[in-house]
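Fill in residues.
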């Protein structure tokens, strides 16, 4: 096992990379909540509201993979799933109407976040170059979650038709190469339940345009990477309090474990 930590100031590592050398990579690039010390005084949102718009606990699923990447910094300090120029923004229009930063956020702080974005992608290039040299093709699970009770903790949930329990983002993968893998993965994922209830599985429902990270992987490596984004509706937690439903999370993890097993078989065929 190879573990890598990159330090920044006195705030701890902005991300953790752990590699075991296999052909599967899982990432939780929105799981973090930390904001660097020098930037924190400019926050205009309280920690609870900010955490609700992050993807807490998505790192719970990372250990199923051979190699894992967890970003520890908040997506609002530096969003690795957006291009460099938009990885931090003082404009509420870029953050669902939420005012994250006080007026007059210094340009120097914005540039520091952009430099963090540069470092992350440079390290991803090193990681993926090495793993692709070893395996030929890689499966990447890009783990996220989303809110479905935005009108309040006691309000009606958002319509399930537009908010599947698990939305599979497959916006960049080459279906001519990875179509069978995606099909079998999706089918197996849908066979499992959460607390005895069937799960609704969607594809490209929530974010049909994808995100910068999978787009970068495709632009950089093309048919050599199969990127599947998993958007879990926050049915495994209370999105308003942040409390985890461990039984629900375990059921979802079991389903992903079995789906990943099927995908590994298909990937091994491609890597022969």
């Amino acid at each position: 096992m190879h573990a890598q930590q990159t330090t920044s100031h006195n705030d701890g590592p902005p991300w953790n990379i752990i590699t075991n050398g296999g052909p599967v990579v899982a990432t939780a690039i929105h799981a973090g909540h930390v904001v660097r010390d020098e930037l924190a005084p400019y926050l205009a949102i309280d920690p609870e509201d900010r955490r609700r718009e992050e993807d807490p606990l998505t790192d719970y699923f990372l250990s199923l993979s051979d190699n894992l990447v967890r970003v520890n910094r908040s997506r609002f300090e530096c969003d690795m799933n957006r291009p460099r120029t938009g990885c931090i923004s003082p404009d509420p229009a870029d953050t669902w109407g939420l005012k994250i930063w006080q007026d007059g956020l210094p340009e120097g702080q914005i540039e520091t976040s952009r430099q963090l974005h540069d470092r992350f992608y440079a390290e991803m290039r090193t990681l993926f170059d090495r793993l692709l040299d070893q395996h030929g093709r890689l499966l990447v699970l890009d783990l996220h979650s989303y809110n479905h009770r935005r009108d309040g903790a006691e309000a009606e949930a958002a319509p399930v038709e537009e908010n599947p329990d698990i939305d599979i983002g497959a916006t960049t993968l080459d279906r001519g190469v990875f179509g069978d893998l995606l099909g079998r993965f999706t089918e197996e994922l849908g066979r499992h339940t959460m607390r005895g209830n069937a799960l609704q599985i969607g594809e490209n429902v929530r974010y049909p345009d994808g995100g910068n990270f999978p787009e970068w992987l495709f632009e950089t490596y093309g048919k050599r990477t199969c990127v599947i984004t998993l958007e879990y509706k926050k049915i495994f937690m209370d999105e308003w309090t942040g409390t985890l439903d461990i039984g629900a999370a375990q059921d979802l993890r079991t389903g992903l474990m079995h789906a990943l097993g099927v995908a590994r078989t298909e990937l091994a065929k491609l890597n022969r």
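The chain is about 30% helix and 20% strand.
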